[in-house]
Design a protein that fits this description.
Layout: E1 13-18, E2 21-26, H1 27-31, E3 35-41, H2 47-59, H3 61-65, E4 71-76, H4 80-89, E5 97-100, H5 105-109, E6 113-115, E7 123-125, E8 128-133, E9 136-142, H6 154-160
Parallel strand pairs: 3-4, 4-5
Antiparallel strand pairs: 1-2, 3-8, 6-7, 8-9
Length: about 160
């Protein structure tokens, strides 16, 4: 089943590389009592994700937060070390949360998994963005066209806030 507007996010655990080592964050902790913008990418450092999707959220971060958003998080089916390296490479430290869905458990639970084995990526996440309030999806934007980040991009999401 694919997640839909009005649905509660299922419990899962993300991993993050921090200055103190590896940390775990549960979905319930991340979203409880907060308004959070989430976007997911098929892979850190992949062309569209690295050059288009993520930069839009970094560029529009202040405008998004000014709309009452508590936090912005990016999720990818990559290990936490890759996500940590991506955070540093994009100068995103302290600006976005770089969450590793290392085993795709969250991605599969919300029905956003896709098999990109033909492109040597294996099981990954579809490209999407959403607004989550206190664990409930209030806006969901799934990208239909591979290699683009328009529907799920920061500018489109900012208009929904």
């Amino acid at each position: 089943m694919t997640i839909a507007i009005g649905d509660e996010l299922p419990e899962s655990t993300f991993k993050e590389k921090t200055a103190d080592g590896m940390a775990e964050t549960k979905v319930s902790e991340l979203f409880a009592g907060k308004k959070v913008v989430v976007f997911a990418v098929p892979g850190a450092f992949t062309p569209t994700c690295h050059l288009n999707h993520l930069p839009g959220f970094l560029e529009n971060r202040d405008a998004i937060l000014a709309k009452g958003v508590d936090e912005i998080a990016v999720i990818s089916v990559n290990d936490a070390f890759v996500m940590g390296a991506w955070e540093k490479a994009t100068n995103g430290t302290g600006k976005l949360r770089y969450l590793s869905d290392w085993d795709a458990s969250f991605t599969k639970a919300i029905g956003m998994d896709t098999d990109l084995s033909a492109g040597t990526l294996g099981i990954r996440s579809k490209r999407y963005s959403m607004i989550v309030e206190d664990g409930k999806v209030v806006s969901l934007n799934v990208e239909d066209t591979p290699g683009q980040a328009v529907t799920s991009g920061a500018v489109a999401l900012l208009e929904q806030l």
